[in-house]
Design goal:
7-stranded mixed beta sheet, 32% helix, globular, alpha+beta, 27% strand, Aminopeptidase
Length: 168
């Protein structure tokens, strides 16, 4: 992953974003004191081209009321990721508290409000795991990515395989 410019991120992020402990990690606090982490970690679900998983975490588990500045800060980070990379981005909602459906819908809404959304392909799918828990995965990549068709096909095939029940 190419290094993201913290200066460019902060030019459009309403909250002050700082780099985290390692490359590809960013942190910020909301007005209500919620400590957010945004991380990009290499992912191997999609093997065509470079693929990263987008992690958005509430580090201090404080209540996170709707705050347009949180959305805009996260989108500023994602925007810089795509300015510097033609990589595929996967957002997989955390399932520990059963709120993954809400998180998926919120992220889709955020992306629908993104000013450059027409430049991207975004696909969201649900995947039911062995315990019957519904998980959500969203694929985002630039429309000018030369591997667009292959990545979309691979994502669709992976989702289909993950949704198949194992034969007993």
């Amino acid at each position: 992953m190419n290094t993201l410019s913290l200066k460019r991120i902060n030019e459009s992020a309403p909250y002050s974003v700082a780099e985290g402990e390692s490359v590809g990690t960013f942190r910020f606090f909301s007005e209500k004191g919620v400590h957010y982490a945004v991380d990009f970690i290499p992912d191997d679900l999609i093997r065509t081209g470079d693929s990263y998983q987008l992690i958005i975490a509430n580090l201090n588990n404080k209540k996170s009321p709707r705050d347009i500045r949180v959305r805009d800060s996260i989108l500023a980070i994602v925007d810089e990721f795509f300015n510097k990379n033609q990589s595929t981005l996967l957002y997989i909602c955390e399932t520990g508290d059963g709120k993954q459906g809400m998180r998926s819908r919120l992220f889709e809404y955020w992306f629908e409000t993104y000013r450059y959304k027409a430049l991207f392909t975004m696909l969201t799918s649900s995947i039911v795991d062995e315990e019957g828990i519904v998980n959500f995965a969203t694929l985002i990549l630039r429309n000018d990515n030369p591997l667009l068709a292959e990545v979309v096909a691979e994502f669709s095939e992976s989702v289909q395989l993950l949704n198949q029940k194992p034969e007993e």
